[in-house]
Amino acid sequence: MRLCVIGPSRFPISEPFAGGLEAHTHALVSALTARGHEITLFAAAGSDPDLRVEFLDVPVFEMSGAARRDVGSPPEQWMAEHHAYLSLMLDLAESGHRKYDAVLNTSIHHLPIAMSRLLQVPLVTTLHTPPVGWIESAIRVRGERTRFIAVSAHTRDAWSGLVDSTAILNGVDTRRWQQGPGGGPAIWFGRIVPEKGTALAIHAAKRAGTALDLAGPIYDHAYFDAEVRPHLGKDIRYLGHLDHAALRRAVQGASAALVSPRWDEPYGLVAAEALAAGTPVAAFERGALPEILTRDCGRLAPADDVEALAAALREAAALSRDAARQRAETFCSHERMVDEYEALLLEAAQVVAA
């Protein structure tokens, strides 16, 4: 297939990834390219050149002085993203049918969906989030050639009142994420922001009497300084924003992984990555995490219950690392995800071609 992939534009699709959205797009584009599909990627400047893709040329937008003085003017970053996706969709409307068999939208921007009715090729959008107003509005005016993928059954069900979608769980590259020996401190990794519950993970580890390593980008510095930094020391360490190789080594050596979201995670990539490293998981029972974890490879605690999470951590650390790895291979594999994406994209392209 000749595919245009509309990726996120705010952060580069390169290591160390800003988050799961960028990691997901990188893995999917890499795999589809390796399978012989011709990929054209729209993504932020600085994205990984090893993807060997052609970056769509979208002109940079700068507001005029008069526009900046408008008291109702949106933030410049919002306007720049709006301009980028608007330009892209207009280009695809004019010539996309001559260049591509289908468009895969992995961004969380509303314009690709809203403007899909202008396209002569199918647009397949991955729903990475629970229902949000901008995307709900776009779905209501979408074109008839649109299809939707949800990153979990939880996310599919959340959107079911508005749109039908196919649940395809995000995958982990189990060739890169190899099983490790464990035996070290527990680990928490991800973006350090209040909604990820970093501070709750720290409190749970302390109550469990377990050392804890933290890894990930600090997105909310005020939160880090107030809720995380005061606890750092011998037993609670911040390892920094690690590249993927260093992160894999840290997770492979951990006795267990803590996953502590304070919202309903649409998927929960860190849980799947931990399992691929053979590291059992203790997590809050929120969002899609109950779909990923079984009693063989993890323990769930009621949302925001630090005492229960501490107990779950102690139990998870005693679980079989082989069972955790097996769960990743059979349920969370990257190959399974790519197979399912490829089949859906082929079906969508063939329906239009027919």
Automatic annotation (TrEMBL):
<dbReference type="Pfam" id="PF13439">
    <property type="entry name" value="Glyco_transf_4"/>
</dbReference>
<keyword id="KW-0808">Transferase</keyword>
<keyword id="KW-0328">Glycosyltransferase</keyword>
<dbReference type="Pfam" id="PF00534">
    <property type="entry name" value="Glycos_transf_1"/>
</dbReference>
<feature type="domain" description="Glycosyl transferase family 1">
    <location>
        <begin position="189"/>
        <end position="321"/>
    </location>
</feature>
<feature type="domain" description="Glycosyltransferase subfamily 4-like N-terminal">
    <location>
        <begin position="19"/>
        <end position="176"/>
    </location>
</feature>
<dbReference type="InterPro" id="IPR028098">
    <property type="entry name" value="Glyco_trans_4-like_N"/>
</dbReference>
<protein>
    <submittedName>
        <fullName>Glycosyltransferase</fullName>
    </submittedName>
</protein>
<dbReference type="InterPro" id="IPR001296">
    <property type="entry name" value="Glyco_trans_1"/>
</dbReference>
